[in-house]
Amino acid sequence: MNDKKDSINIAFCSDRNYLKYVAIAIQSIYFNNLNNSLKFHVFLYDVSQEDIDKLNRMYLNISVYSIPEGFLDKYDNEYAIKHLNRSMYIRLLVPRLLKEKVDKLIYLDADILCFKDISAINNINIDNVVCAASVDSLNKENIKNNVQRLNLSTSNYFNSGFLYINVKKWNDFHTEEKINNILLEHRKQLLYPDQDALNIVLQNNVLIIDHDWNYLFTWISEKDQNKFLKTEKKIPYFIHFTGARKPWYLEHLGMAQDWYVFYKHFTSWRSCPLESYKDKMRISDYRIYAKRFLKQGRVFETIKYAFLYLKLKLKNNINDNEIKR
To answer: At what angle do helices 283-295 and 299-324 cross, to 10 degrees?
Structure first.
């Protein structure tokens, strides 16, 4: 089989912390595309052989590529976003490493699930662009603010969790090099480092496609999240669980977590328990938890998390003032 013409090529990047979620995402794609020829390319950084063997035991068409130790150290600096995974930067070199193997590929973040047949991707023409992507927001004002913030010459700002890439165009345009230059020289000015850099470099070389290819879970109101697939007339190809509060954490109950647990059952990580989010809590999380408990009428939890939020916020403000002095 010729990967360049016959398969839908899909790439993921991960370190040891996210590999199980990549496996779950892969399983969701496989189950919804039984009639399609799929080829998965998984790029790994700092992953044990034991976990690589687990991935291979899924017996799907998966090729594994190991990234040398220390390769991503250049991205690890004081401007890093703490909840983001460094392996997201591997996506920049994927088209270069696969240039002899594929013509087009779908890059996906690990925090994504597939909900239907994706063969329609073959109907999207990216012959004259570097890649195709979907908008980062359904709110036009939000898009406008990001366009102005980055001084883009286009009217669009896309989310980088789904990229349908023209491999030759990506390499001929020296996309990897241009984005690295921005990340390493101007990262302090970027709110969302890799995504902002991608938007800057590709602003005139990207095709904006239907947001059903990268439907952000945060677009769904909290009251509608548990009934979304029942009421939505048009089911997205992919739902992307952006933000730090992922549904795979023990405390984040709901339909989204049920989806993850279902697909997890068919992976080599089926027996691994869900992890707790408690040791990953940020100041803003306490405020969000307090509001959520308030809506549920759970008074004790509301007071507890509101108090913790105010306490940490005050402590943080005091520390900031001391630094400024």
So the answer is: 160
Give CA angle at 310 (278, 219), nearest 5°: 60
- Sign, CA dihedral 144-147-149-153, equals negative
Residue bearing tokens 């939890």: 301
Read off the pLDDT of residues 258-286 as tens digits, 9 standing for 90 and up: 999 999 999 999 999 999 988 888 888 88
**Measured between alpha carbons, how far is 124 from 209 in angstroms, rounded to an integer?**
8
CA distances in angstroms from 17 to 106, 272, 279, listed in the order given? 22, 13, 15
Which is it for the CA torsion 47, 50, 54, 56, positive or negative? positive
Question: What DSSP string describes 178-193?
Answer: HHHHHHHHHGGG-SSH
SS3 104: strand
Tokens of 281: 């809590």
Alpha carbon distance 15, 37 (integer Å):
26
pLDDT, one tens digit per residue, over 58-95 is 989 999 999 887 666 666 554 444 434 566 678 888 99
**Whole-angstrom distance, CA of residue 278 vs CA of residue 290:** 14
CATH code 3.90.550.10 for 8-216: yes
